[in-house]
Amino acid sequence: MRSGNPALSENTFLDLGSGTVVQGDAGAMTLNGTVNKTGLLLVLTLAGALFSWSQFATALAAGNPGAIMPYVWGGAIGGFVMALVTIFKKEWAMYTAPVYALLEGLFLGAVSAMFNQRYPGIATQAVILTFGTLAALLLAYRSGLIKATENFKLGVVAATGGIALLYLAQLGLNLFHFEGMRFINGSSPLGIAFSVGVVIVAALNLVLDFDFIEKGVEQGAPKYMEWYAAFGLLVTLVWLYLEILRLLSKLQSRN
């Protein structure tokens, strides 16, 4: 069971050891339970996003849009810390995953509001495309049109790792005030092509996540893994949304 999502690594269920229960046990992970918890985390993310979005509107009306930055950095850093805690303490996911969702919501709402201020309507477009992609890939996966074969998994994981290395390299160059790889953030044809490729890879990670969750259910993982699996799927959705938002902003900046 391999996934490009760091939260759903190859050894996620294997590391549970004696905590795993048999399939059919009342304490076992189920698909419906995972879907319900994913829905709850999405609602919490939306709540956090609506709050920070409203705070941006208030700050903008007061002529101080910079007042939103605590929500950007607090949500981003806090979400990252909670993600690490959840990954290393999977049994705490019932408590940490909702906190992660709220913090990511604060971050996404603030960032989306800033993008939307510059390109009106872009946030709505990104949300529609994100959930449209989720629905399309879920349908394709369930119908068997897309199968998570080993070669497919290896390709997506390798591509995801390559993107992560590029982003880390660019971050390091920025810290030392080097321009670095302009195509990552630029709106040139190469920059747009890069963003399209990243969006495709992020979307394909959803297929791996579906397969990973399905395997966990089949193996009868503990009940708390429903929260952890929902958290892992949310991580991919957040990444996909941000990449779609970036791509749309690049396209609109050329108009």
Secondary structure: helix percent: over 70%
Number of helices: 7
Q: What is the residue-mean pLDDT, rounded to a whole number?
A: 88
**Domain module tally:** 1
Beta-strand percentage?
under 5%
Largest sheet: none
Rg over CA atoms? 19 Å
Low-confidence spans: pLDDT under 50, at least 5 residues?
17-25
DSSP summary, beta strand count: 0
Q: Looking at the structure, what is the overall shape?
A: globular
Q: Structural class from helices and strands? A: mainly alpha
Distance between the termini: 43 Å
List key phrases describing it.
single chain; mainly alpha
Show the helix and strand layout.
Blueprint: H1 31-61, H2 69-88, H3 93-118, H4 122-143, H5 150-175, H6 189-218, H7 225-253
Helix pairs in contact: 1-3, 1-7, 2-3, 3-7, 4-6, 4-7, 5-6, 6-7
Description:
With 255 residues, the protein is mostly helical. It has one domain (24-253). The chain is 72% helix and 0% strand. The chain has seven helices and no strands. The protein has helices spanning 31-61, 69-88, 93-118, 122-143, 150-175, 189-218, 225-253. Helix 1 (31-61) packs across helix 3 and helix 3 packs parallel to helix 7.
Brief synopsis:
With 255 residues, the chain is an all-alpha fold.
